[in-house]
Amino acid sequence: MSAIRLLVLGAVRRHGRAHGYQVRHDLEDWGAHEWSNAKPGSIYHALKTMAKQGLLVAHDVAPSEAGGPPRTEYELTAEGGAEYFRLLREALSSHDQKVDVLTAGVGFLVDLPRAEAVALLERRVEALRAWREEIRRNWTPSEGEDWGHIAEIMGMWAHTAESGEAWTRGLIGRLKDGAYAMAGEEPERSGEPGPSGA
User: What Å distances lie between residue 193 and 27, 103, 108, 181, CA to CA?
Assistant: First the structure.
């Protein structure tokens, strides 16, 4: 799964209707260009591609103030909304996501109802635990066996699973304690972190 699809769909959704520069600006404000493949060219390419795929509707609006062709604004279709939530749920529940995908998922976490977000993260914990046990069962040297430096790979995997599980459990606890205004809840404060215009 590519983080760019989730990021772009989520940024458009937060605006309701947005042109490419708004999406780019939001994601840059969020630092996504540093931790993901959300570079200007990939953002515009993703917008055009997802419009062709029926996930977004492209609307031509008045020419930009600098002159030139009309600006294109994008809006999610029903299929685009369904794809957004599918990608979001997958990003939060899978144990083997790349860090940019998980980061994007956490960034849009508040678009889900609290109970659903907790349930998805609990699935991630279970998947991480199962992965860690598989590593220990199948990828750990037996007593007296010397795998040399290759054993460091298995140690890194086990450590990644353990730290991922601990972080996810912490987030679950914070959500259960009422952290953040989730979908369907009244915000307790303004200025939740996220792309501009959220």
Answer: 12, 13, 10, 11
